[in-house]
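Give me the fold.
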Amino acid sequence: PTTTPTIPGGPATGLGALPVELIIDKLTYGVRPGLKQQILTRGVEAWVEDQLDPHGRGVPDAEARLVGYSTLTNTHRQNYDVMKTNGGAERLLQELDHATLQRAVYSERQLYEVMVDFWVNHFNVWRQKDWTGFLVSRSHGTVVRPHALGKFSDLLWASAHDTSMLYYLDQVASVVVNGERRVNENYAREILELHTLGVLDSEQAYTEADVRGVASLLSGWSINWDDSATRYDFKFNPWGHDLSAISVLDGAFSRPKRNYGQGLADGEALLGVLARHPSTARHLATKLCRRFVGDAPPLGLVQSAAQVYLDHDTAIAPVLRHIFLSAEFAASGDSKVRRPFELLVAQLRATAASMPTLATSKSVKHLAAALDALGQPIFERVSPDGYPDVGRYWTTSDSLLKRWHLGGVVATNTLTSQTKADDRVRCDLAALIAPYTAGTVAELVTSAARDLANFAIAADDVEALCVETGVAANSPATTVTSDPIRLGFLVGLLFAHPQFQRR
């Protein structure tokens, strides 16, 4: 089921008072040429409200770039047939990776794409488990994307009926046959611990008995294995469902003993109870505050955001607006380390990089390899908890060296140089820097930091970058702009700056 949440308007001046630089760092994957002026022309408040619209009305997306990416809209059965062809398994991975990057870099629905990534990690599915990949290619567009700014209750419902999730967490093997209990508790445990109620400060709102009860309520939830057009879609198997009377969560959900053929509606009703549980509200509010405010979410903001979630029947956008209007959000500049995916996309956006749109382009292999080297390959987190959203995980000594290197290869057009010319991701730094060639190198660095990297650089850092680039700060800017290698090196240094590495 899909419902449209009602989003109340925020205070007339609250969002509009926020600095445009903060809005860009927090609500998007990073600045692009012209984005600041676009936001200022529209007005910060109006622009943010446009971004909060679950349907994205009037905001261009990047779907026109994905013509020919048929595996994104194929049925599961069709994608299975693709997988069995020569090179088909690679095609499934490549089209989804390429689409994910294209959308993050080029869509103007930036907050929506940020939230898609948030929920992909919240409902993580490792696509390399056996043949789960062909299921993920389809379910990415039917589970997370339709509900990323809608209602969590709808998102949870879609995830629980997602066959990639059910296969990944062994739910397909959870049955009761002829009275013999073969219930697998893996999915039941994760839906409580990770997807809904959560564990906060080692405290949890559920017991082991609840895990067993939820597993029983969801027994029989499986995949259609019939040789039909709907093969690999969701199917409830009544022969595998536990018909016993069940009560979980201190009686928050109970059902009497059922007759054969019943039980699916009970599991679906349980999802509604879980979505609207106060512990779920707290768990989601904590994760959203961690995403947009800081690694250690302020307790007061978490509590108030959780209440907004409950007051608006699990609608996501009102919670985000509440967070964006908070004093904690306004003071949260540079509080978060960009994860590798965010960092790469931010660099591609900052340099106005051109990416091939062909689904068969080999450039995506090199982009994916760069993310793999940094520890965040797309859709490849093995454990169901998703990639960590705390800075310490991404800032080991080895990680920092690789992060600094990434900016250099993006800025010097060497990231995809191994491919043929029309397969490369390229940027034209000379064109971007052209407005700043009349001044000194110091003025060039200051302007480039402000406009390309979205931060105000300190005078000492300007001097340090000039030294590293091998030019005097008071030299003409053309000393750098006329030398593509030196210019790329300078921009790479800006991308390595702590203020660009953070958001």
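The chain has two domains: 20-330, 340-375+396-503.
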